[in-house]
Here is the input.
Amino acid sequence: MDFSDLETLALRLEDDEEKLRQVEAELAWVKEELKQKPKRDARESRFAKLAGYQWKDESDLIRRAKALEEKRVTLTNDLKACSLSFMEGFSSKDLTVPLEPKPSRESGAFFFSFRNGVTYPRTVRVISRIIGLSVPIVLEPVTISEHGVKVAEEDQYLAKEKVVETFEGLEKTLALKLKQPFRRRL
Amino acid sequence: MALERAPIAPNPVICACFGHCGIGIGAEAYRWMLMDVGADPRRPVLKGEKEQMIVLRRYGSTVLRLGVPYKKAEIPLVPRALLIDLDPRAANLILQSYPELFTMKDKHALYGMGGAARNWAEGRSRFRDEIETKYDVQRRFEELSPEPVRGFNVPFAMGGGTGGAFASAFMEHVRNTGGGTQVVATFGVIPEFGWDPVILGPASISIIMNLDYQIKYSDTPVLIDNKALRHLAARFGEDLSKRTSVVDELPEELEIGWRDYRNMNLIPAHMISMFAASFTRETEWDMSNYRTWLASSKPRFIYPWLIPVVPRESEIDGILKAFAEARDGVLFDFEGEEPRRMVGEKSSACVLVKARGKFEHEQREALRRVIKDRFPTEDKRIIFIRIPCLGKEPGGILVLLNNKAIGNKILSIAKEAEEAWDGYKSEYERWGLKQEEFKQSLINVVNHFS
Here is the structure.
């Protein structure tokens, strides 16, 4: 597993999240309409009786609500599975973070860009959201952005050590989130 | 002159006690040390050079200082202790019960305006507002110790609002103002959920924040576990009840809240007295040596193993018998896990041996075998420190263990804290602990203990 795979998963995650948001908004509207339905139906049927024609309920709100609910459940499950895959991928021991081996110097700090100038905006966004941090992810003295990793250190080797420690910290925290509740012995 | 022959004591070490628990343990530790030097803890005075010499040989003027002489040339022994709490009741009770021990009266205490609601963030914020800015903390140190302060012993509970938060802010304060030479040894007590009056979620958050501060600012972070203390206090109840305690001196109607912890507090008091003796009596070992021992360790924390829990003998053979009689105790609870399987490759130990007479090769090897059997450790990673046993005082062994066996328990608390955060977030953010800071601390602690 490397950052490209994570970026694909993050793309799917964000895509599914957007879809879920739309489905939930639509479902909320349909449910509100359904709440109003008995009142409206009564008015329609009284009007039909007065006007002397046969009223028939032609709205498909119930069917729509059912379909949307099914879609919501599917998307939620997909999201959970995708989120789990992302967390497992990120916290797996064989994760590779494609950083340039030689950092550049940027205003007193070392900057390790992602190889070949590739950016990983979604991966960084998803990690930050799962952990509960903002973008860029700042874990003193390391800052992780979509372009690479910046370390406020004087020595290149110390900077590399800090990068390793920071990613290990993130991986272990995600692994902790994935862990089943601890068995308590009373 | 007799005094000139006494070894020069290392520079002073102040015991800064935070919150109800820290004050209880700190006061008990001083009582234990005074009993060790044969002084009356209610009115510890010296009556001449001979007694001064005895005291100087046992704890030096490191943890105690000589006060202004009373009439009849009696010299009071004054604890270099600072009792700090938001709620003034605990410290007041101790000061009032020991008026002639804490002879510097209010100079031994710093108060705030009342409890911190079991909220670490409130505690930290109020330390800054009600202690750091209101009092001249540096001046208080100078009053307790006109000589430059070498270090601090800092006992506190980690699951409440005041002790853990104040200790955190205090460590940071010392690091930022002490010029880098002062050594901070912290004695953090992990609560027993379901027994101690703490709230699970907030207490877990407090522990994580406090651990992060200890990682950053403590040179010798010692972890003690209340569950283990409670079990040991019950197991050795009879022996402990024979020792006198601070609690015995409190007015009966105010004992509630202290009585339950009487025997529990005596155990860390014994441990702290051994720890202090390691650098006050042994000329080859300095408090700062603990810093170097732990500098590259991960986790950089230690937990104590007392042999025996309640001291009786002073000869090494008698002390070693405590193993066979199961009178020893580890002051940490592993939640039923077997620690020997979790210690890791770089496990190490610092063994403080306070005994009368010689400590022969065979005795050293016997002790080494017992340690390795329970906490597998390479021979070369075990440090032995001899502490002379003086007068009639009983001896003992304190094994300070540095290994990964404590990790699982801390990680389970980290998980609890992580899950609790969303529910308590607004309460913490109101007092200045932002999500960003909490999450950074969480990651740091998880990484450190994994």
Notes: Confidence is low (pLDDT under 50) at residues 1-6 of chain B. The radius of gyration of chain B is 21 Å.
